[in-house]
Request: fold
Amino acid sequence: MKKRIFAVLMAGAMVVSALAGCSSQTAETTAATEAATEAAAEEAEGTEAAAALAGSDYHLAICIHSMDNEYWAQEAEGAKLAAAAYGVSADVLTCDSDDNKQLQGIKDYIAQYGDKAIFVVDPSSTANTANIAELCEESGNYVTILAHRAEGLYPKDYPHFVASLMLDDIAIGKATATALFESIGGEGQVVELQGLLGDDSATNRHKAFEEALKDYPNIEVVDSQTASWSQSEAMTLTENWLVKYPDLKGIYSANDTMALGAVEALKNKGLNGQVMVSGCDGIEAALNAVNDGDMVITNANNGYMIAGYGASYAIQAALGILDPTSIPDNERLIFCKTTLVTKDNANEIIDKFIKTKDPGYDYNDLSFCIDKYQE
Amino acid sequence: MKNKWEESLATLSVGQQFAQKVKDDARKDKIRRYAPLILLIIMTMIGAVSQKDFFTWGNVVNIMYQMSIPLVISVGLTYVLLLGSIDLSIEGVMGFAGSFVAFLVVNNSNSNDFGLLGIIAVVLISTLIGAVTGFIHVKARIATFIVTYAVGSIMTGVAVLVYQGTPIQVKDELFIVLSQGKLLGIPYITIIAFLIFIAGALILNYTAFGRAVYAIGDNETAAASTGINIGLTKIKVFALCGCTAGMAGILQCIRLKLGQSSIGLNQMFPVVTAIVIGGGSLAGGKGGALSAFVGVLIYTELANWLTLMGVDPYVKKVIQGVIIIVAVALTINRTRKTISK
Reply:
């Protein structure tokens, strides 16, 4: 008897958790649909009315890792804005960086909406990009893949893989490192906080740091350690470095979270603003730190841009506005624009990305997002 | 040829042999008990000799500061491991506590200003979460491994819901004072952590509750037969672990000034390892507050020393792994018949 009660309880708990999962998704859908309706109403006066109506029975799946990260949340927001611009409803599918979960989410979405399903995917891993492209090609759904692309995977081989939008990690890393070196007068002791060992972005940003170093012979890199993207680990490392290197001038960090850890360690010693820190990603706290002078530079990776325009590419293809096969092959491999943030433009970026949560992009103009083409 | 041991066997009666064995075990046990302490001393000496900065006051303060949060986590976890259980919800509870406390005190995203009251509320909620975890474990008889994993996952989710994806920045004056202030050169966070540790150690060593925890870990059936309320004790232990995990989350938030679920990430396993290095056992019944302290200190010193040495990050991971295995191999009890559980 007792066992049975617990079985019922457990079953109840499972149902509740399943419902919780569903309901959050439903809420997202409703919100996006509302936004879409609003946008549709606004645009009904304009010339885009036809397109907006045409999109109304299409569904965009925004496949991201999770909402537990400002950049991913920005991606979701950006893609929703783009979907609203075309009158397409949008759902956020999270995968918690699990390849199978992401593929399953995409399959379920196709099963639900058939050829009316459109995808914009920040892949769970680089390796998974090939599976995603195959899957969408087989079912005939348009997809753009963001930020990662497996070696040898090209949109030109897949009519439905509309485009690959990436961030130029090397150029970004080089720019932040250079700004850091310039801020300390091009000489002195510097340390590097690396991201998670073995991670693509971590490897690229480390490479970028080393490339930037070549132009600055008087910069001495006294140590380079990984803090695995963690603020706490970065803070601990910085505390230890400050004991060993009292003449430390600068800290290059592969992301903002670690940079903020370094800033906290510096604050405890009253050295913030004296030892320069550079970050990358453009999370809110880091933008504020740049504004306060605790960090010298960061890069706003701009999820609104990459995911918003990524979604636009796929939606335009699905609505027949854009024919992917007619675009030159190399122009389907895009490096997206990002923005370097220093004290000069920090306030502007905070207003656009954080306060209004709408940078006001025209998602119909695809060329706007293109910084350059990938090699 | 008979060796000396066999000769002595031949001349001893069964009773004498048994007495001899007990005496031998007691001696081995004593060596094992002091092995972590010896390891700590050796490591400290190596550190002092190899790095001139290792024994500076600044670095000693650093080590004390860096061991603070693991130490607080270790307080509750020691009790849980003594029972032979595990609490995988610590990281989730820490993340929740850090996120929620950031939400309640002065911050950049809302107009809350609950200050100390907010801190107390979060500690109480964390304690309650621990108690519920213990209750489910005891009443539904689900293994702690599963229950705590589930609770941890729930709390991580709740944490993210609290701040909606954008970590809350703490602007509370109290937090800034607590993170940067010092008393006689020792950071407040360290002092708070040590006080929490001392309280945990006193409860474990000088109360009936503490003795019950040891008794249950050693032999649950025997403990039950002496009239100890096993269920209630276990619920109390998990409540205590939730409480210290919550406090660790708040301290982490004080340290980092950013409330997000990831502040609990990768915080638990190092402490489990540290406790085992200090002489605790995952099977329960072995270890205690002091051995946890020694373990946490060894672990923190090691990380600190490797950074000061400027060891390559890849090599660092390897060295850490090797030292953990060596340390545990030195301290573990090999007289058991089964190899592991």
